[in-house]
Amino acid sequence: MTDTIQFNVRGSIAEITLNNPAKHNSLGKTELDALAICLKAVANDAEFRVLVIKGAGGKTFCGGASLVDLRNGAITGDDFQAVTDLISSLNIPTVAALNGSVFGGGAELALSCDFRIGCAGMILRVPPATMGLCYPISGICTFVRKLGPTLSKRLLLAAEKLEDDELLSLGFLDHLVLPAEFESTVDRYADQLAANAPLSVQGMKQIVDQIMNGGLDHEWAQAIADQCWNSADLQEGLAAQKDKRTPVFNGA
Q: Each residue of 173-226: pLDDT tens digit?
């Protein structure tokens, strides 16, 4: 898409790389616009089963919104939120491959994904309070919804620096791996997600997200369950289990 945002396809897996390591993969107007285009393309292509978002350079996953573009008015918190909303609204599972440290809005970007795989040696810090800024309200809602009020206050009010093992124990990370194993672990995890039945995966993701956001339409959820129950994929899964082979799901 641009020099600083790269889009790659690996089978049914879409990969977006934040490719500006010299600026800690921070996101200015150019990057946010490109990300929005990539995410809309993923949302509109039924062939994709997983999205992986990663950072280039191995030092920083994402430094958040570009302070230069924020200061000169090129972007606002709403622009950043529009991108994280696009990630959150995707029907397919999303993986944040945190191959480096995470700062500011980079934490919100990671929290917008369903899964976070961290690399040993990474740290996380959200510093707006040290500069006199209030983090965007919608972003604060994301922190509280995903991490709870206590950890959100540690990150936002105290601007604590949290290290890799603590991020795992507190639930920010789902998995923590050594640098030498990081890329292969992310690939295997994405492959595992992509191999599962799409109707089941996407349906259950939507149900979990609706519950997390404060309510559940039971009739709507039951319709999703019924669709899975009546699907050809279920018959394939049962047949594969009986034949002791790997199922091949078509999302139907």
A: 999 999 999 999 999 999 999 999 999 999 999 999 999 888 899 999 999 999
Contact criterion met (CB below 8 Å) for 130 and 108: no
Calpha distance 201→47 (Å, rounded) = 14
Residues facing residue 9 across a β-bridge: 14
Confidence of residue 62 (pLDDT cuts 50, 70, 90): very high
What band does 1 get if pLDDT is binned at 50, 70 and 90? low
Would you tell me how many other CB atoms lie within 10 Å of the CB of residue 85?
A: 15
Hey, which residues does 16 pair with through a beta bridge?
7, 53
Of 181, 222, 228, 230, the residue nearest 201 (C-alpha): 228
Residues 45 and 83: beta-carbon distance below 8 Å? no
Closest CA to 120 of 77, 159, 167: 167
Q: Is 51 helix (H, G, I), strand (E, B) or coil?
A: strand
User: In the chain, what is the straight-line distance between the N-terminal and C-terminal CA atoms, in Å?
Assistant: 31
Average pLDDT of the chain to the nearest whole number: 95
What is d(CA 160, CA 178) in angstroms, rounded to the nearest whole number?
23
Rounded mean pLDDT, 155-176: 97
Given a contact cutoff of 8 angstroms between Cβ atoms, the answer to whether 31 and 74 are in contact is: no
Is 78's pLDDT higher than 90? Answer: no
CA–CA distances in Å: residue 139 to residues 134, 144, 214, 241, 243: 10, 9, 17, 43, 48
